[in-house]
Amino acid sequence: MTRLIFLGPPGAGKGTQAKTLADHRQVPHVSTGDILREALSKQTRLGIKAQSYMDKGELVPDILVQEMVQERLSQLDAKHGWILDGFPRTVKQAVFLEELLEQLDQSGERVVSLEVPDDVVVVRLLARGRKDDNEEVIRRRLEVYRAETAPLIDYYRDRQKLLTVNGNQSQEEVTDELQKIIA
Ligand code: AP5
């Protein structure tokens, strides 16, 4: 059963690798960033609420993202596995997820931490140029990552769920390393 969580700084390659693996394993790729951007483009209530946080590189409030993830993982296609990309991002979200997975009888998740130095991710993101990929917002996203999300590495290591992968190599090399480690 594929139940994987991708952790890593902005630009680490979480989306790229999560999508490849989800296609390969035929499970849903659940990206909170993508769900929020879609809500934003459709100007739903969630999208409108999330916009100011996303534009500044701040985290959207836990409660909004948690509801979104609960709804998505409760859908039928998530019963037989999923790949989470961008969630959890705070210890509070991680505790919420643990309880949710227990309720849904979907425990047994593993966590992949993609490791890439800050200077490399900044270059990658500036080259991509999404709305939140300007230098000021990227720096803020990195600060938020360090303060709020990086503590999850120890959180999952303590629970013996953590796998680490060197994300600072070609996309194909990262995919190969990943496939070996989760085989
Ligand atoms: P989100 O969309 O999750 O953004 P992020 O974490 O900043 O991650 P990115 O999508 O920028 O990077 P990535 O690691 O997925 O890398 P990618 O594969 O795209 O979140 C956006 C915002 O939504 C947040 O700031 C927040 O406001 C909100 N949000 C989302 N989830 C939330 C949550 N749980 N709680 C609260 N708020 C939340 O690759 C990046 C680039 O690098 C691409 O151009 C790619 O082609 C390239 N690349 C990838 N791999 C390689 C490689 N190996 N070598 C060279 N280039 C590569």
Order of helices and strands: EHEHHHEHEHHHEH
Mean pLDDT: 97
Structural category is alpha/beta
| pLDDT < 50 stretches | none
Form type: globular
Beta-strand percentage range: 5-15%
* Helix share bin: 55-70%
Number of strands: 5
What is the CA-based Rg, rounded?
Answer: 16 Å
| Biggest pleated-sheet summary | 5 strands, parallel
Bound molecules: BIS(adenosine)-5'-pentaphosphate
Number of helical stretches of at least 4 residues: 9
How does this structure look, described?
Helix 6 crosses helix 7. With 183 residues, the protein is of the alpha/beta class. It has a five-stranded parallel sheet, with helices on both faces. The chain has nine helices and five strands, in the order E-H-E-H-H-H-E-H-E-H-H-H-E-H. Helices cover 57% and strands 13% of the residues. The mean pLDDT is 97. The protein has helices at residues 14-25, 32-41, 45-56, 62-73, 91-103, 118-128, 135-149, 151-158, 171-182, and strands spanning 3-7, 29-31, 82-85, 110-115, 162-166. It is globular and about 40 Å long. BIS(adenosine)-5'-pentaphosphate is lined by residues 8, 10-16, 32-33, 36, 53-54, 57-60, 65, 86-87, 89, 93, 124-125, 128, 141, 170-171, 174. BIS(adenosine)-5'-pentaphosphate (AP5) is lined by residues 8, 10-16, 32-33, 36, 53-54, 57-60, 65, 86-87, 89, 93, 124-125, 128, 141, 170-171, 174.
